[in-house]
Amino acid sequence: MTRSLFVPVLLTAVGLVASFVALPGHAQVFVPPRAYTLSDASVAGQIDLATLDGRFTIELGPGCGDIVSGINVEFLPGSGGVAGIKLVGSDQVCNVLIDQRLSDTPCAQIDGVCDVSEES
């Protein structure tokens, strides 16, 4: 008999929930939560991150030139306020510093998944 399991894992960086999905044969695949980037109208050049858990200001680390405002990303857990984001489908991780929570307002979603195309 083949069973699939969904086991939530708390991500301490911003309190997001990711999951490990058990596949047939007992292999596990990490499924990072989706998020998206936004411009911060109050600070020129600032990029914010919208997640299911709220909206945060972030500072991009070196080598993050592909991360711009208005794109869907995958959020990767970290600790001490440091995390990773990457373009959906990419293997290149951009390290970010999560500065502060701007609001508890969750990201706009399609079927429970953050999607920038739904942002108004």
Topology at a glance:
Layout: E1 6-11, E2 16-22, E3 28-31, E4 34-39, E5 47-51, E6 54-60, E7 72-79, E8 82-87, E9 94-103, E10 109-110, E11 113-114
Antiparallel strand pairs: 1-2, 2-3, 4-5, 4-7, 5-6, 6-9, 7-8, 8-9, 10-11
Please give a structural write-up.
The protein is an all-beta fold and 120 residues long. The protein has one domain (33-118). 0% of the residues lie in helices and 52% in strands. It contains no helices and 11 strands. The protein has strands at residues 6-11, 16-22, 28-31, 34-39, 47-51, 54-60, 72-79, 82-87, 94-103, 109-110, 113-114. It has a 6-stranded antiparallel beta barrel. A 3-stranded antiparallel beta sheet has the order 1-2-3, with no helix packed on it. It is globular and about 45 Å long. The termini are far apart.
Radius of gyration using CA atoms only: 15 Å
Please tally the helical runs, counting DSSP H or I stretches of 4 or more residues: 0
Oligomer: single chain
* Beta-strand fraction estimate: over 45%
| Category from helices, strands and their pairing | mainly beta
Poorly predicted regions are 1-23
Domains, number = 1
> Biggest sheet: strands, sense, closure?
6 strands, antiparallel, barrel
Strand tally is 11
Distance between the termini: 45 Å
Shape, principal axes of CA atoms: globular
SSE topology string: EEEEEEEEEEE
Strand order of the largest sheet: 4-5-6-9-8-7
Helix content: under 10%
Average predicted confidence as pLDDT: 80
